[in-house]
Specification:
Layout: E1 2-3, H1 5-13, E2 26-29, E3 43-44, E4 47-51, E5 66-67, E6 75-78, E7 86-93, E8 105-111, H2 118-122, E9 123-130, E10 136-144, H3 145-151, E11 156-158, E12 173-182, E13 190-192, E14 195-201, E15 228-236, E16 246-248, E17 251-253, E18 256-264, E19 268-275, E20 284-290, E21 297-300, E22 321-322, E23 325-326, E24 331-332, E25 337-344
Parallel strand pairs: 1-17, 2-13
Antiparallel strand pairs: 2-6, 3-14, 4-5, 4-7, 7-12, 8-11, 8-14, 9-10, 9-12, 15-17, 15-25, 16-18, 18-19, 19-22, 20-21, 20-25, 23-24
Length: about 375
């Protein structure tokens, strides 16, 4: 039996198993402490307003849900559920001077690293230009929360046209749409993406002047948690595995499978964990390989490793995992099934998610 993501939600919502996937998870575009960078000449004031969780009718531009603090993009999304996208709209505008006009400026966006969490790896974020009705235009940054932060670490000048002119300047307002979607997540973590936005006046300044040039630009570290070794799927091997082929789980989490990268006879295999386009990967925690009447051979992850192929497991030979040895002839049994476990955080009650498959009867670990 293969359990779909919808089925997984139902399974986790039953009884006292724990929080359902994505429930109580919080993703924030939140206020951040003042950046400890050298202030740049030419910085001008801006106003950032936001509308949370847009509906089909778009925002009421006369009634924003909130206003940013200084130059900080502020907003939040709470209680995300798997497969239920959420959209926030931000309006960036320039205050008028005494003459009733705006001082044209170039707008720059920068991100700090989020706290390292599995949620930050599995939460997909897309920042794009938008019109006033919340219709997305071209993309500014997209990927996991961490990947989006990485792409903005050096500062990015917003340059959509219109409303940006040929000099990269805006004189009125600019809209940004933030879209969030959570998939295949089990846990109860929270995470924040601190974003900072600044405006540099166009008059008498270089168009390439980056107000974040003195900021920290180190890549954000991966944030996977391996509090739980979550057994998510089994591949039954009825015919000999072939290098380059992908095999979906026969039992377990839909969308996942293995792509064979090497073979040694019919008792040794190396592979990479795969998913469909909608399901982000969780790193391997362990692989159990069954063959013959003997117990499974167990291969745990290497300490502090968060990888997606068998080269990141302890006890492998060039990434190959093997069945037990047949004492009668000294060779490995042929593979009968492969059971895969991945790293996962704990649920809100501190427990681990229930396994989605199990080791074959009479085939426990040594």
């Amino acid at each position: 039996m293969t359990l779909s993501r919808r089925g997984l939600l139902s399974a986790l919502a039953v009884g006292s198993v724990g929080s359902l996937a994505g429930h109580n998870a919080v993703a924030l575009l939140s206020d951040r402490e003042t950046m400890e960078t050298q202030m740049t000449a030419g910085l001008v004031d801006i106003v950032v307003e936001y509308w949370r969780d847009l509906g089909p009718d778009g925002p009421d531009l006369t009634a924003p849900d909130g206003v940013g603090d200084g130059t900080t993009l502020a907003g939040h999304v709470e209680d995300l559920s798997t497969g239920a996208p959420v959209r926030d709209l931000f309006r960036i505008s320039l205050p008028q001077d005494r003459g009733g006009t705006n001082n044209p400026a170039r707008i720059w966006l920068w991100a700090d690293c989020p706290e390292a969490t599995t949620l930050g790896e599995l939460l997909t974020v897309t920042l794009s230009y938008s019109d006033a009705d919340g219709r997305a235009g071209s993309t500014i940054a997209s990927g996991s929360l961490r990947q989006v932060a990485d792409s903005l670490r050096e500062g990015v000048r917003l340059a959509e046209s219109p409303p940006v002119d040929e000099s990269g300047c805006i004189a009125d307002e600019l809209f940004i749409l933030a879209e969030y979607e959570l998939a295949a997540y089990v846990g109860s973590e929270s995470v924040a993406l601190p974003l900072d936005i600044r405006a540099v006046q166009c008059r008498n300044t270089d168009g390439t002047l980056n107000p974040f040039s003195a900021s920290d630009t180190e890549p954000c570290p991966p944030g996977y948690s391996c509090d739980c070794c979550w057994m998510i799927g089994k591949v039954e091997v009825d015919t000999e595995l072939e290098v380059g082929e992908t095999y979906s789980f026969d039992e377990g989490l839909a969308g996942y499978g293995i792509e064979v990268t090497a073979m040694d006879g019919d008792g040794g295999v190396a592979f990479t964990l795969t998913t469909d386009e909608e399901t982000p990967l969780l790193p391997l925690c362990a692989v159990d390989v069954k063959g013959g009447p003997e117990p499974y051979e167990h291969y745990p992850r290497s300490a502090d490793a968060f990888g997606f192929d068998t080269t990141d497991l302890d006890g492998t030979t060039d990434g190959l995992v093997y069945t037990p040895v047949n004492d009668n002839n000294g060779t490995n049994y042929g593979i009968s099934n492969i059971v895969v476990s991945v790293c996962a955080p704990t649920l809100s009650d501190g427990s681990c998610p229930a396994p989605l498959t199990q080791l074959a009867r009479g085939g426990g670990r040594p």
